[in-house]
Amino acid sequence: NHDLVVLGIETSCDDTAAAVVRGNGEILSQVVSSQADLLARYGGVAPKMAEEAHIKAIDQVVQEALDRANLTAKNLSAVAVTIGPGLSLCLRVGVQKAHKLAGSFNLPIVGVHHMEAHTLVARLTERELQFPFMALLISGGHNLLILARDLGQYIQLGTSIDDAIGEAYDKTAKWLGLDLRRSGGPAIEELAREGDAASVKFSTPMQHHKDCNFSYAGLKTQVRLAIQSRNINAETPISSANSQDRVARADIAASFQRVAVLHLEERCERAIEWARRIEPSIEHLVVSGGVASNKYVRARLDTVVKKKNIQLVCPPPSLCTDNGVMVAWAGIEHFRVGRFDPPPPAELPVDFM
Ligand code: KG4
Ligand code: ZN
Q1: Which ipTM value was assigned to this complex?
Q2: How is its cofactor bound, per UniProt (predicted)?
Q3: Has residue 344 been placed in a domain?
Q4: Which of 114, 163, 169, 180 gets mutated to test ligand 1 (max ligand atoms within 8 A of its CB)?
Q5: 170 touches ligand 1 (CB under 6 Å)
Q6: Residue 315, ligand 1, Cβ within 6 A
Q7: ∠ at Cα 310 (308, 316), nearest 5°?
Q8: What single DSSP character describes residue 76?
């Protein structure tokens, strides 16, 4: 077990990431190549463009992960790669790289589910974390509440019926004219600290649905209307806004964040009650995915779990946003119990046809 060394490859969205992790949880290397600059120029992820960026970055990212770990591919026990969910054009780049490497070096392959990787990485950072536990996964594309009963056994307690919270952060940032060279979430988190969270009255989503599902499309619309009615122009970057305009933007950022997170709080509280009926011994709520790197989110959820007498487990920010470590670790967990594919055939020579 402790001799396992697994390479993890992640290309499901806009980051090309790779990492090498040991069976005992030791992170030997971690490399992320971000497309944030590209995204800022085009205002979102365009699959074809993201695919090209992955193709350009993948060989070097993987090589660097191996180099920094002081290893060559032949020292690996297996290659783990994200196989979904995500943009298929992008996923394919990682999967092809994994197959090429595994084929050349006769290595088994572990196909990894992106959301499971976000969940399981908490067992790397918190070595005491045992099943069953709950997880709130909050990112740009997903908003999930799950009960993890065992490895591979997950009950979905709630999901978004439309947008995920990260998407709402990203759009709000764009409409407020924030600097998108990094993603919208951190920009809103920072601006919100200057604002008054009680100044704009947004209504909390799904008050009449007493379940654990989420909805962020309506809140997005409320934010867009509030921005329009205050004549805030996204074309004017916040750096050139006058002080009154800046205050107005900060107030919207803070008010949006308060309600967006209040929605998480309410759903988590209910989900803990639901989960206890199935697994009365639940002791932990894992919060992971890009939005889990937000300090306000962590602090608010911490009060919820305290009230319910359970513990919050939040991986460090670099392991909450998309990364190769979580893929390598999920690969290790599955490899250990025999869930992997045998080495693919070595690559055929280029002139085979
Ligand atoms: O997990 P992730 O890296 O990629 C997906 O699988 O989607 O999550 C990216 C999302 C983006 O929407 C980004 O704006 C959000 O996570 N995010 C944040 C913060 N850092 C990243 N949202 C709020 N506050 C943050 N500090
Ligand atoms: Zn993710």
Answers
A1: 0.98
A2: Binds 1 divalent metal cation per subunit.
A3: no
A4: 169
A5: yes
A6: no
A7: 125
A8: -
70 and 138 together in one domain: no
Question: What separation in Å is there between the alpha carbon of 87 and the centre of ligand 2?
Answer: 12
CA dist 101 and 93 (Å) reads 12
In this structure, the answer to whether residues 108 and 243 fall within a common structural domain is no
Give the DSSP H or E segment for 8.
strand 5-10
Over residues 178-199, the mean pLDDT reads 93
pTM, to two decimals: 0.94
Number of domains comprising the chain: 2
Atom 13, ligand 1: residue with shortest CA distance: 185
Residue 108, beta-bridge partner list: none
- Do 111 and 30 share a domain, yes or no? yes
Q: Which residue has its alpha carbon closest to ligand 1 atom 19?
A: 185
CA dist 25 and 5 (Å) reads 10
Confidence of residue 350 (pLDDT cuts 50, 70, 90): low
| Sequence-distant (≥ 6) Cβ neighbours of residue 309 within 8 angstroms | none
Do residue 177 and residue 238 come from a single domain?
yes
Between the CA of 327 and the centroid of ligand 2 the distance, in Å, is 11
Mutation choice for ligand 1 from 90, 180, 291, 314, CB with most ligand atoms inside 8 A: 291
Ligand 1 pocket residue status of 291, Cβ below 6 Å: yes
Report pLDDT digits (tens) over 263-309. Answer: 999 999 999 999 999 999 999 999 999 999 999 999 999 999 999 99
What domain range includes position 53?
5-120+322-336
69: CA distance to ligand 2 center in Å? 24
Is 346 within the bounds of a domain?
no
102: CATH? 3.30.420.40
Residues 207 and 114 in one domain: no
